[in-house]
Design a protein that fits this description.
- With 308 residues, the protein is α/β, with parallel strands linked by helices.
- It has helices spanning 10-22, 36-45, 61-71, 88-91, 114-120, 156-166, 171-179, 213-222, 293-298; strands at residues 3-7, 26-32, 53-56, 76-80, 98-102, 125-132, 142-149, 230-234, 237-247, 260-264, 268-272, 278-286, 289-292.
- The protein has two domains: 3-179, Rossmann fold, CATH 3.40.50; 201-298, Formyl transferase, C-terminal domain (Methionyl-tRNA Fmet Formyltransferase, Chain A, domain 2).
- The protein contains nine helices and 13 strands.
- The strands form two sheets. The chain has a seven-stranded mixed sheet with strand order 3-2-1-4-5-6-7, with helices on both faces.
- The radius of gyration is 23 Å and the shape is elongated.
């Protein structure tokens, strides 16, 4: 089987690329021009030479990719995150089609960033859905779906590393399905609610007035590291929170959501949340750099101040 790969993420794609290369199935890799500087060194580290990488730009990518597939007699294209829609003129080129490794559970979590939404929504499981690609995004027949538990406290980066490492274990199942002429694929069910949009500012921002400590902890994990943390502010001072720890207070404290209820040089900041629970801010990012909760206290964040 001669396989060409389109990818846009090193964490999610490298384990599969390494496995395909070791089996002698990898014909080449396509990456978008904007990410050459970040992806090429990682690809080279696997022994994938620059000459075997097709750098694609908006103006000519469809024609160049089609020519490459025909020239190299590619059987199938495996997609491990790719930002551009594939036209019908491309989808019909390889005999075994375009196969998408979608790093989320379809049909609910289709679209651009299923990992973010699954963590933010406090799902118990994430996973990989492997499906045939059609002109409609993440809607083609399913070849195989593998679920994996979302671990407590797992952030975006850790989950991506884990499911990226899981992808090669699905290779034989996918290859077997593609080589079986009688294989029946599962059509996706229709769902009323799905999360298919790129997170907006409001999706990344802590709402202290409505979100519980648990809601905020999952939002923080969902934004770390890809979105640089969950956004919040105190007055005109903006910051992003990258790590929090739930806290149980020894005495009953009456405080408004977002209010700092404890601050010192040992524990840093403890903040009240909606529902009466509390969070300790352990790591945050400001325009001046990454800060511990203790450092924020030293900068003037003290008991009684309120995040808005």
């Amino acid at each position: 089987m001669r396989i060409f790969v389109l990818c846009n993420s090193d964490l999610l794609a490298l384990p599969m690329l390494n496995s395909l290369k070791e089996r002698g199935m990898l014909v080449g890799v396509g990456i978008v021009k904007e990410n050459v500087n970040s992806l090429m060194p990682a690809l080279n580290s696997l022994g994938i030479q620059t000459k075997d990488c097709l750098v694609l730009d908006r103006a000519s990518w469809v024609i160049r990719l089609k020519d490459t597939l025909l020239e190299n007699k590619v059987d199938t294209i495996w997609v491990l995150t790719f930002p551009w829609l594939l036209p019908a003129s491309l989808l019909e080129v390889p005999p075994k089609g375009f196969i998408n490794f979608h790093f989320g559970l379809l049909p609910k979590y289709r679209g651009i960033d299923p990992v973010f939404w699954q963590i933010k929504n406090q799902e118990k499981s994430g996973g990989i859905t492997v499906h045939l690609m059609t002109e409609e995004v993440d809607s083609g027949p399913v070849i195989y779906q593998e679920q994996t538990m979302l671990m407590p406290g797992e952030n975006y980066g850790l989950h991506c590393q884990r499911i990226g490492g899981l992808a090669p274990s699905l290779m034989d199942k996918v290859l077997g399905a593609l080589m079986d002429e009688n294989q029946q694929y599962q059509e996706l069910e229709k769902v009323e609610k799905h999360f298919d949009w790129k997170p907006k500012r409001e999706d990344l921002t802590i709402d202290w007035q409505t979100q519980t400590a648990e809601n905020i902890e999952y939002l923080v994990n969902a934004t770390n590291p890809k979105y640089g943390g969950a956004q919040t502010a105190m007055g005109q001072f903006e910051l992003r929170i990258l790590e929090v720890t739930p806290v149980t207070m020894e005495t009953k404290i009456e405080a408004e959501p977002g209010q700092i209820v404890y601050a010192d040089v040992i524990y840093g900041l403890v903040v009240a949340c909606f529902g009466g629970d509390f969070l300790r801010i352990t790591i945050a990012k400001t325009s001046e750099g990454y800060m511990s909760g203790v450092r924020l206290f030293n900068l003037g964040f003290v008991k009684g101040h309120k995040f808005g």
